[in-house]
Specification:
The structure holds two protein chains of two kinds. Chain A is of the alpha/beta class. Chain A contains eleven helices and ten strands. Chain A is globular and about 55 Å long. The longest helix of chain B is centred in the N-terminal third of the chain and has 46 residues. Classes of the chains: A alpha/beta, B mainly alpha.
């Protein structure tokens, strides 16, 4: 039995007067990976950032429609975006280690925000998240070194560990491997398979093979519209819309 | 072919032009140091280098000159002014860069920068006609009268409550150096990448947490550079301080009472210096001021390098 963890109902994101994403309705199933694919500028990142109220930081953006997390609209007046972002974590396209913090402090940064200061507790969470992010063995002996000394792939896994440390219910990933080499990409894709046992994942990718390899469901975006949604197998083997077929067979994009 | 030769010649000429200009700057700095040194040589010779620095008597009649009170005055006023101005200037920078709507931020930034454009003699006049009477009537005298009955031991620390003296000079100095630290801090804060802020927001941070945990640490190099610029400005500030500090070189200094700085004693006395020894002593103080500024810059450079060491490897 599959539960819907998150859902959008006719979500439209306006940049000023222009709609970046128009009327998108999508379910995101619990402990599954939903991939958002489509050519550059199709609105998939814009849509993703609507799911944890990241657009709140930009005053010219306006959002219509509903984004439901466990059945409750996260844009409701009584919802605090700070709490929402704690429940819906995010990993960005480029690694974003905090340069003045050690590896350890990077990973537990979100925990310290909620007032966890017990050293043992922090250590326990850091170890768990770093193991989840498949980075523990590489960094366990140098947790107090600056995180910017790590390689790009390791930095991205630090970003993932940091997002996981606060135990989000949903994890949003915005092209998490686009800045990485094939080996680091492989490491992160392997990671997704184990992560989905615990969290619901929504991943934006412009790499179709990646979407086919890792996701359970796929939504295809084009020019701000969601064209087609379905189980990944079906989207990639037997798409209904001819535009989806054209994209996945590489005729544009 | 001819054109390429021409281009190469231009390159060589331009390189030499830059080398000469750059060299000239160094040469001028060296010349200044040399002039101050040779001008002050008589005093250094007469009292000994260490003796001149350590001596606190400054008496034209007896021909006794020492730099200690002025060195102390410069260090105390600068350090106090820096301490007082640090929080307001950082607060202004944070407010402008992070909190106010852009149009309001620009207005405030413009006004803060304007503080740096005012000639320091204007600050001196404001000090004499506005700040000094206010301090004297509303702060210094009431406090002094209170201390007479309640805490007589404080009186020597407080000094004469005339308004003219250390406290007034420090307050005006604090105001004067705010734009230097504030504008550099503001630029540094604005340069913090959006990705850094978003990464912290995405962890469930509030705006203040983002500022405190991400923005300020990331911008600390620029903030520190601003502090150093302000300190250098405070050390060298002459006119406003000379007009307000009361020019007393009697140690120990007191909170309200008159004091003097290296810059203020030079400005005050060089026109009426009697005898070669006094003139030479003033130049020697100029040389020490030069050294002090150099020292501050070296220390700042060292700290700045260490501070940004971790970020260089990105």
């Amino acid at each position: 039995m599959e539960n819907v963890r998150m859902e959008t109902k006719e979500v439209t994101v306006f940049y000023g007067q222009k709609a970046g994403v128009s009327s998108v309705s999508l379910p995101m199933y619990d402990k599954k990976i939903t991939a958002l694919i489509g050519p550059s500028g199709c609105g998939k990142t814009t849509y993703l950032r609507a799911l944890n109220r990241m657009h709140d930081l930009n005053p010219i953006v306006r959002i219509e429609g509903e984004v439901l997390l466990d059945g409750e609209n996260i844009y409701a007046a009584d919802k605090d975006p700070v709490v929402i972002r704690r429940r819906v974590g995010m990993v960005f396209q480029r690694p974003t280690p905090f340069p003045t913090m050690s590896i350890f402090n990077n990973v537990v940064a979100g925990l310290k925000l909620v007032g966890v200061n017990n050293r043992d507790k922090l250590m326990e969470v850091a170890e768990r998240s770093l193991k989840q992010a498949a980075l523990w063995d590489e960094v366990k002996d140098r947790l107090s070194e600056p995180a910017v000394g790590l390689s790009g792939g390791q930095q991205q896994r630090i970003s993932i560990a940091r997002a996981l440390a606060v135990e989000p219910e949903v994890l949003l990933m915005d092209e998490p491997t686009s800045a990485l080499d094939p080996i680091s990409t492989q490491a992160i894709e392997d990671l997704l398979a184990t992560l989905k046992e615990e969290v619901t994942i929504v991943i934006v990718t412009h790499n179709m093979q990646q979407a086919a390899r890792v996701s359970d469901y796929t939504a295809f975006f084009l020019n701000g519209d969601m064209i087609e949604y379905g189980p990944t197998d079906k989207i990639f083997t037997n798409p209904t819309d001819e535009r989806t077929e054209a994209y996945i067979t590489g005729r544009f994009g | 072919m001819l054109e390429r030769m021409h281009g190469r010649l231009g390159d060589v000429l331009f390189t030499w032009f830059l080398v000469i200009l750059g060299g000239a700057v160094l040469l001028i700095a060296a010349l200044m140091a040399w002039e101050l040194w040779s001008g002050g040589a008589l005093a250094f010779h007469h009292f000994g280098f260490g003796g001149f620095i350590a001596s606190s008597s400054w008496d034209a009649v007896k021909g006794q000159f020492g730099a200690w009170p002025f060195l102390l005055g410069t260090v105390i006023t600068s350090a106090l002014a820096l301490t007082i101005s640090f929080v307001p200037s950082l607060a202004a920078a944070i407010a402008i860069a992070e909190y106010t709507p852009p149009w309001l931020g620009e207005i405030i930034a413009y006004l803060v920068d304007l503080l740096a454009a005012l000639p320091s003699v204007v600050y001196g006049l404001l000090g004499i006609f506005v700040l000094i009477p206010m301090l004297r009537n509303y702060i210094e005298q009431p406090f002094f009268t209170w201390a007479i009955t309640k805490a007589p031991w404080l009186l020597t620390v407080l000094g004469p409550p005339t308004g003219i003296g250390m406290m007034s000079a420090v307050l005006v100095l604090s105001l004067m150096i705010i734009p230097y630290s504030s504008s550099l801090a503001r630029d540094a804060i604005k340069l913090v990448p959006r990705s850094q802020r978003e990464a912290m927001y995405a962890l469930g941070a509030t705006r203040w947490e983002v500022v405190r945990l991400v923005v300020l640490p990331y911008a600390r190099g620029g903030i520190f550079a601003g502090v150093i610029l302000a300190l250098a400005r405070a050390i060298g500030e002459t006119m406003a301080v000379t007009m307000m500090i009361g020019n007393g070189h009697q140690l120990p200094f007191s909170v309200f009472g008159p004091a003097a700085t290296m810059a203020s004693v030079i400005a005050n006395e060089f026109t009426e210096a009697t005898g070669d020894l006094q003139m030479s002593s003033l130049l020697a103080i100029g040389f020490l001021l030069f050294l002090l500024s150099l020292l501050v810059n070296f220390i700042a450079d060292y700290i700045l390098r260490r501070m940004t060491a971790g970020e260089g490897r990105k």
